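Design a sequence for this backbone.
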């Protein structure tokens, strides 16, 4: 039995740590599969969504290897608003890998460490010491993990021609990990361009997105900021996916879904590994245009329609039953009935 200190943001035992990573990895894969199955994104959006989720999964697996046998540091998890690793963990991981050349020079040769393991197991008939396991894990971590695949605070996708039937000629995507609520977001923008060549304007678009659309905010405010700072493009449709919260035994937020899960785990009505994942999709579309400024500084801006907010929940069958029983009012606010995903065995 794993006892979770709900007043702590640190998983202070390796049993908790292994269990958390297994549950998070499983839930994330189930979420990706279900988003595709229920067509919550277009085909092109789904390709980008999978790529960003792959970066997230890769980073979480890298954390698992890094901390597995570390006796000094413990990974911090946001227990209040996301249930995912704290944003600082991604930053530490990225910065740490920039120095991996220095660390590799200090580690033993693989063959030497293998010889020590064999001597300990076969000749001395004793288990491998934790510091040696950590040394082996460090070799795996520093030789196999690539910094460029770590989910950073802001990840920019390429500008491509929009799929046929889209609201505009071009589309781009980006993702960010919000510092305030420790959750990842994936965004898509469809836009028209008035200049001769989009290639010469791409870098400016990327820079504006990084400075203007890199955190959680009202979507219409984000759309207006992008539109105002990029006078040569006309944004027509912006879509943002919020991944989380991840409701599980490690969470301690005041969310009713989390409370239902924790209460029923405590009463042993459901197993310890029970979970649910929330996902929200916000969209805003341009309805018309208006001109702002004086004679010498006119700029055409978009008049945005009301932001559409859609909330979804993904959970195993037993959890869905509980949510309908305990929180029917929340179920009534969802865009669609909860999507069933597999239970973690």
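Sequence:
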């Amino acid at each position: 039995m794993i006892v979770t200190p709900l007043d702590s943001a640190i998983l202070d035992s390796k049993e908790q740590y292994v269990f958390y990573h297994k549950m998070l990895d499983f839930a994330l894969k189930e979420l990706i599969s279900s988003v595709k199955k229920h067509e919550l994104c277009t085909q092109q959006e789904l390709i980008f969504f999978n790529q960003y989720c792959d970066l997230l999964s890769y980073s979480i697996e890298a954390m698992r290897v890094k901390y597995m046998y570390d006796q000094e540091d413990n990974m911090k998890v946001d227990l209040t608003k996301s249930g995912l690793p704290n944003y600082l963990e991604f930053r530490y991981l990225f910065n740490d890998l920039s120095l991996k050349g220095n660390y590799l020079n200090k580690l033993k040769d693989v063959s030497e460490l293998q010889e020590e393991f064999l001597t300990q197991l076969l000749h001395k008939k004793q288990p491998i010491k934790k510091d040696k396991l950590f040394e082996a894990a460090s070799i795996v971590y520093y030789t196999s993990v690539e910094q460029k695949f770590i989910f950073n605070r802001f990840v920019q996708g390429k500008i491509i021609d929009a799929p046929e039937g889209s609201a505009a000629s071009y589309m781009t995507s980006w993702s960010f990990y919000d510092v305030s609520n420790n959750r990842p977001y994936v965004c898509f923008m469809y836009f028209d361009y008035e200049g001769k060549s989009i290639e010469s304007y791409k870098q400016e678009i990327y820079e504006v997105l990084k400075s203007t659309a890199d955190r959680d905010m009202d979507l219409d405010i984000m759309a207006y900021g992008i539109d105002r700072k990029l006078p040569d493009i006309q944004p027509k449709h912006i879509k943002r996916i919020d991944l989380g919260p991840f409701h599980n035994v490690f969470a301690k937020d005041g969310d009713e879904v989390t409370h239902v899960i924790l209460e029923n785990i405590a009463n042993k009505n459901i197993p310890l590994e029970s979970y649910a994942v929330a996902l929200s999709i916000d969209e805003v579309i341009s309805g018309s245009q208006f001109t702002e400024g004086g004679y010498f500084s006119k700029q055409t801006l978009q008049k945005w329609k009301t932001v559409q907010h859609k909330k979804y929940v993904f959970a195993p069958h037993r959890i869905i039953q509980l949510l309908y029983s305990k929180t029917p009012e929340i179920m009534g606010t969802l865009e669609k009935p909860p999507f069933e995903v597999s239970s973690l065995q």
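The chain has two domains: 14-149, 154-340.
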